[in-house]
Specification:
mainly alpha, 4 helices
């Protein structure tokens, strides 16, 4: 069911705005300000995702909470992974133009969609439908 009530829509878009803006800022802050660099920043957010995955596989923590936690971790991870592409070499980057870096990331996403197997899941409590 899709809810289109103004309050729900407003909450959704405010949550997206904050998670995207603050996620990018958090990724930059971890990598630039704390001296861990881009590689260390990636490790921080991958560790967070591993913890969330562990919660999914080994606990009964709310799946909604785990999904939201994973969603929040992906934004700073993406920022930390993408930043080194266009940063100057003196700052630890690869000094690739912004357009080329965007193309590389787009090609990576397309390759993942094309080559990683996709399978529809079932909702817990539902029985699988015969093929």
């Amino acid at each position: 069911m899709i809810c289109t009530q103004p309050k729900v829509e407003t909450f959704y878009w405010v949550a997206i705005l904050f998670s995207r803006s603050l996620g990018t800022a958090l990724g930059d802050w971890i990598a630039d300000t704390n001296g861990v660099g881009y590689g260390g920043g990636v490790l921080v957010f991958v560790a967070g995702l591993v913890i969330v995955a562990g919660g999914y596989f080994f606990t009964k923590i709310s799946r909604t909470l785990l999904f939201r936690s994973a969603f929040i971790h992906t934004r700073p991870l993406g920022a930390t992974l993408g930043d080194p592409l266009d940063k100057p070499r003196a700052e630890g980057g690869l000094a690739i133009s912004l357009d080329a870096a965007s193309g590389i990331l787009a090609a990576f996403v397309i390759a993942c969609v094309l080559f990683l197997p996709q399978k529809a899941g079932t909702h817990p409590g539902e029985t699988e439908k015969p093929a």
